[in-house]
Here is the input.
Amino acid sequence: MNGRTSGRLIPANAGGVTNVRLISQKIARLQAGGKPRVLDLFSGCGGLSLGFQAAGYEISAAIELDPHAAKSHGENFHTGKPCHSEARDITRTPPKKLTAELKLGEPASAFDVIVGGPPCQAFARVGRSKLREVADHPEAFRHDPRSRLYIEYIDYVKACTPLAVVLENVPDMLNFGGHNIAHEICEVLSSIGYVCGYTLLNAAMYGVPQMRDRAFLIAVRKEVMNTVSFPPPTHQIELPAGYEGTRAVAMKLLTRSDTHGPDCFWRPSPEANADLPPAVTAWQALSDLPPINAMDELANGRLKRGARRFDVPIPYPESDELSDYARCMREWVNFAAPVALKDHVIRYLPRDYKLFARLSPGDQYPEAYRVAEAMFAEALTQRAELGSAPSVDSEEWNTLRAEIVPPYDHTKFPNKWRKMEADKPARTLMAHLGKDGYSHIHYDNQQARTISVREAARLQSFPDGFRFFGTMNPAFRQIGNAVPPLLAKAIGANLLKEINAALMVSPREVAAGGR
Here is the structure.
């Protein structure tokens, strides 16, 4: 089945006996020691997949629209199987087509867990009443492209009958277009037989050297468990005020029904114990990687304008001591570090290297602009001392200024630039890292540059043996869009532990007629 009949989604209770049998078979398979089989929707390069694989799951398939990300996922998890590296549009790839192309049998029996998350833009202003109609009456608003990806996601859940679902998105998922989308998704999933919960987790509390807040939703079949929980933190950190402010805005729509009574889906974010180790710092994450002195590279002609390809191996420097985090990144099972790095490449930003060197840790664009203005004044003074000072607003004056001072308005977008702090985790990596990288300027004044592709991967907790396909910009975009694998591993491990405990202690009877 592909989840459709006569132009409509199959109702939640259709084929109840079949669902009972399939769920029983999947439970029995796990009880016999089988690994849960994962389907990763909107997979990107595979942050969720990598974490779940490390936690003991089998990555069976993925759907990703972007060709570079799809190839990264396929080559890392299904080497030598080109069909897994193909880009696929979920709106044109119903479940039956996917499993047929990958030779995985029928959708209903192919997967035990579905992970991923539709882009949140798909949910804008799709009301609660509309979401409740998805199971039986989707065509009433299928013409609205904002709801399309959500419908496809639910199609996959209904057609594949997974024992568990894990969905990740930005915190604004809790307050998007005037709706708490996480709560509304839980309402839909609970109506088709799942126990649900959602919360906010920060990656820095799970060993990732990055302060990255994201919403996570977990749903598990009622036949397996009667509640869901989220992993306890492994590290502690006091988040900056900006993160707390963002959380407050995201949680503004939490109502009494979100926190009390039979519709209680919200779970407070797990708190870190005071005796936990501090969050992993940028220095611990990056200091063992080969240094790249941007100004030297520019002067020697080794750094030029043009596409950055991953074709120049750079060996690791000799090191007597590695941080625990660096060792983890080098020794990840199935993704051990190569002899030399090929994706340790940086942006060509000749105007800004000297400016980067003079910034202080934590400086953002307003501070950078003031430093640049001071550098311009110094350059004018030097010209004056040589008797060649250009007149104000002359062509020569404007050319000199353009060579030193960035053109952006310093009163807008202050977060556009930021110099990292060595003794703290990095701030959130975004997909637009693929456009400029100014949000993550290296903390080392000697290197004076934005971070490399491999450094971005380290800050997201991708191990050194994980390969990104495409050139520099697509790789940055893949990394910025990904779920940090160490956070995904914590979620996957906690979920698997709970499922195994529930099935071993008291596996549920599946009632005739299905639930």
